[in-house]
What does this fold into?
Amino acid sequence: MYKIVDGVLQVDSLQIDGWLNLSGSTELTSLPDNLWVDQSLDLRGCAGLIALPESLSVGSLYLQGCTGLPFLVRNAGRMERDIACWHHKERGVVISLGCFIGTKDQAIQAVKRKYSGDAASDYVAKIEIAFALYAKWREENGRPKLNF
It folds into this structure.
């Protein structure tokens, strides 16, 4: 199904039906472009991961402890999630808030439905920071500018 060679995930197929659990794979540094995981991609504890691939498509994404990602924002919301943006194959730039994946506006609306007051403001600020860090990372790494 998959193996990690020199820090790079190698899979038999870029399309994975179901879940892909790579949690704790500290040697993992990168994932292949155009990776598609039907349900959940669990990357918790993959501290060596330094980027998310272009055109990643997943049902849900778990990033807790992926401290090598330069655009990771830690401790968001009551669940203290680690959140990050990436370029989704079909939806453009999105953010992962655990099982929620959506655009910036969708994420902010979802947070405002669930949180109020300072908790909502803090979470929204972290979403804004995540998008700003991702835009900066793309620019610094010569990736095409995306609107979001």
